[in-house]
Amino acid sequence: MAFAEKRGKGPDGKPRYRGRYKLPNGKWASVSKDEHGQPFTTVRAAREYAQALEVDVRRKTFVNPRDGRITVEEWSVLWLESIDVGPLSEKEYRLRLKNQILPEWGSVAVGDLSPVGIATWEKSLRKRISKNYADGVLSTFRTMMEDAVASRIRGDNPVASRTSGRRGRYRPKERDVKVIATPRQVLLVARNALEMRGPNEHALVLTAAYTGLRIGELAGLHRDEVQLVDRGDGARIGVAKQSQYVDGVFTEIDPKYDSGRGLIIPPFLAELLADLISSRPHSEWVFTAPKGGRLLRGGEWYTETWHPIVNGRPPRGVIRGAKARTGIRPVLGLEGMVPHGLRHSHKVWLDEDGHPRVAVEGRMGHELPGVEGTYSHVTPAMEKAIADSLQARWEASLRPVIDRREYGPMPGSLTPP
């Protein structure tokens, strides 16, 4: 049975006591402070706290106060070794820890973390960094503390979930608004890409929009993974890998969420890809770098290619030996669209055309949850209907538009086109 014993006097001259209690393994342990770090100054306080710990032992909810003395930095090392995630996710976790979490909390004991302290830090964090980045940092911290609770290092998670109640002003839920393109706008972006970078970028934009594939999946697409002749079940693309930088090395990894899949594609896209591949008979890739090597999608591609084909660029004469270049007009209504917006656009098109949810989510590489996912199945007829509707959208996008502007003014120009 738990009991208390005297330890002497503290700096304030008051007596100090510690509680003694039995651990789950039968050994005796001691505790000299409560969960708030306050020392016990009476026999009763020490004994009752120790008795409460013994009750937790019997109920199998016991968390050893000594375990909570491990610091957040020490726990993060153990935690990172235990998780099993993709290389890019692990890299992102490490960066969030290094840049945001550990500078603030690394030296603090896990058991000393408090919800109020973390909420105050979160408030200042959201003033310094973007919403999405802050959400990611808090998500990593929350997950790490969930595992600390599961490992019995502390009894609760001090990092509040997004759905937990919290005092303060009401704020409507912020939505991450995506810029969505119509088929006609995609065609205009593809034409800009053709003018700037040639057939490879032209085909890349259209393939991303009409398949919903991620840029990394397109970069990792081998020519032997495409069947561009319709043998009765439609022309198809197989997704087996995606290309990503891992520790500075260009590597092929499994698709996100292990979402390898085969997609039927509309006839126009099959013809376009067949022409692209035949123009480079010795390349193993469908999409390549300008000189035929492996396609790289780093920061330079976003600034030098993607942003200009969407947002336009001014013309330039010959400077310092560099060739002159033509100007590119921006596509109206797509200001700020990122490459992933093509994937979002593809999903919107399929929803607008009323295709079954199981076929849409399967094409996107998602799984339907629950009973719906168990009993719903994609059929060849569903796939064919998707290809037909995409072909119809493509053909409609080719019709000239004469009643509205589609391009904005040339960047640097003072007058509209």
TrEMBL record:
<dbReference type="Pfam" id="PF00589">
    <property type="entry name" value="Phage_integrase"/>
</dbReference>
<feature type="domain" description="Core-binding (CB)">
    <location>
        <begin position="70"/>
        <end position="149"/>
    </location>
</feature>
<dbReference type="InterPro" id="IPR010998">
    <property type="entry name" value="Integrase_recombinase_N"/>
</dbReference>
<keyword id="KW-0238">DNA-binding</keyword>
<dbReference type="InterPro" id="IPR013762">
    <property type="entry name" value="Integrase-like_cat_sf"/>
</dbReference>
<dbReference type="InterPro" id="IPR044068">
    <property type="entry name" value="CB"/>
</dbReference>
<dbReference type="InterPro" id="IPR011010">
    <property type="entry name" value="DNA_brk_join_enz"/>
</dbReference>
<feature type="compositionally biased region" description="Basic and acidic residues">
    <location>
        <begin position="1"/>
        <end position="15"/>
    </location>
</feature>
<keyword id="KW-0229">DNA integration</keyword>
<protein>
    <submittedName>
        <fullName>Tyrosine-type recombinase/integrase</fullName>
    </submittedName>
</protein>
<keyword id="KW-0233">DNA recombination</keyword>
<dbReference type="InterPro" id="IPR050808">
    <property type="entry name" value="Phage_Integrase"/>
</dbReference>
<comment type="similarity">
    <text>Belongs to the 'phage' integrase family.</text>
</comment>
<dbReference type="InterPro" id="IPR002104">
    <property type="entry name" value="Integrase_catalytic"/>
</dbReference>
<feature type="domain" description="Tyr recombinase">
    <location>
        <begin position="175"/>
        <end position="388"/>
    </location>
</feature>
<feature type="region of interest" description="Disordered">
    <location>
        <begin position="1"/>
        <end position="21"/>
    </location>
</feature>
